[in-house]
Specification:
Shape: globular
Distance between the termini: 41 Å
Helix content: over 70%
CATH superfamily: CDP-alcohol phosphotransferase transmembrane (TM) domain
Number of helices: 6
CATH class: Mainly Alpha
Strand content: under 5%
Radius of gyration: 17 Å
Mean pLDDT: 90
Length: about 180
Amino acid sequence: MNTANKITLFRIVLVPVFMFFLLYDIPFAQYISAVIFVIAAVTDGVDGYVARKYDQETTFGKFIDPLADKLLVTAALVGLVGMGKLDPWFALVIISREFIVTSLRIVAISNGKVIPAGMSGKIKTVLQIVAIVAMLIDRIYEISVGGILLSNVLMIAATVATVYSGAEYILQNKNLIEIK
């Protein structure tokens, strides 16, 4: 197991730790959950950098890295919905896209093809992470611009990017989808 993949697996291990602090009312839990989420999110860039710089790109890494992102983002969205901090339809749209693209990747793998993350997928991930961090911070400070919570604006942007990215993946890989 190479270093890049170990970093990715560390991100997966951080997910339940993040959820513990997100959902339980203990001293400083709001701050700790936000810090853990940021650390986990930063490892996404670090593992990719390490993989490219040290020639550690693997098929396993191309599969597990996006999966780790999806686990982290899904956990955060479900937690925020459960706490009443996020409208469920945001989570439904984002999580649905993740299931669709992951399914497409599984079909691709079964055909000997790997679908790497495209630029729109990377932008989508960054926007989702920024929006979630803003929501975690808003749990504490409620930052608003013109009476609208900044986190809501960012979540709308992340959701639009998510839909766009999902549509792009489907259109670029429509040859993998058989309709009989």
